[in-house]
């Protein structure tokens, strides 16, 4: 008999793991206090900008409390890097099966709590440049892996910073970004195709017909204060797992001065009861 778990999954681009720990530390804020307080069972981290040893050292206090860690270090110092923390045993961990991107620190998946959970960080890109071409090759490779996971019929969720706003509801200033990477028609169509293939944008399903909820705001100007953000941090789940999603929230800081990353955690609760009433 396969056990169906109750599991809470969070995803957060930390914008440098050592910076996220140091940021606001005097006020007892930052990544470590957040991890100490979170109800999440699994936490996906992106843009650690650190090698595996540095990630382990930075997270030593939470590892001492029993969290399990898997990480994928970047191939270029100070760039990318992803990691996954779990309160449950990590049964297996896998990098992206790709000659080009396997060691880039942009994709890591683990089996934990009866679920395959991936932490991913898609390139920012830049329209009509080699950077955009690289982004698109990564997207193609990612889609191929997602097709394999969906066909396997296993509960799976792909978490991370996708660097793509899917619809006009996912970006405040969409009119000013239609020709920029992150809101290009081709990128948005790629996400549409993923959803058509059976993956579910869990946050959007639980928060339909609203602007956002945004999870990234520029450090500059008054973007945060005016909630002029982007929704680019997604949890895309296979249909059986998505059917168990009962709540989803963006853990937005109460004030600009309390932020410890330019992103906010996106947290989804997946219940083992498929008939449980959904709540936002």
What would you note in describing this structure?
It is a single chain. This protein has 280 residues and is α+β, with helices and mostly antiparallel strands. Helices cover 25% and strands 23% of the residues. The chain has eight helices and twelve strands. It has helices at 17-22, 31-37, 52-58, 60-64, 130-152, 185-196, 202-206, 239-242; strands at residues 7-13, 42-46, 68-72, 82-86, 90-95, 107-112, 115-121, 156-161, 200-201, 233-237, 245-250, 266-270. The strands form two sheets. It has a six-stranded mixed β-sheet. Strand 7, helix 5 (130-152) and strand 8 form a beta-alpha-beta unit. It is globular, with a radius of gyration of 17 Å.
Count of DSSP-assigned helices: 8
Largest beta-sheet characterization? 6 strands, mixed
Low-confidence stretches: 275-279
Distance between the termini: 31 Å
Beta-strand proportion: 15-25%
Please tell me how large the radius of gyration is. 17 Å
Judged by helices, strands and strand pairing, the structural class is: alpha+beta
Averaging pLDDT over every residue, what do you get?
A: 94
Question: Major sheet: order of its strands?
Answer: 3-4-2-1-12-11
Helix percentage range: 10-25%
Shape: globular
Q: Helix and strand string, N-terminal first? A: EHHEHHEEEEEHEHEHEHEE
Query: How many runs of DSSP E, i.e. beta strands?
Result: 12
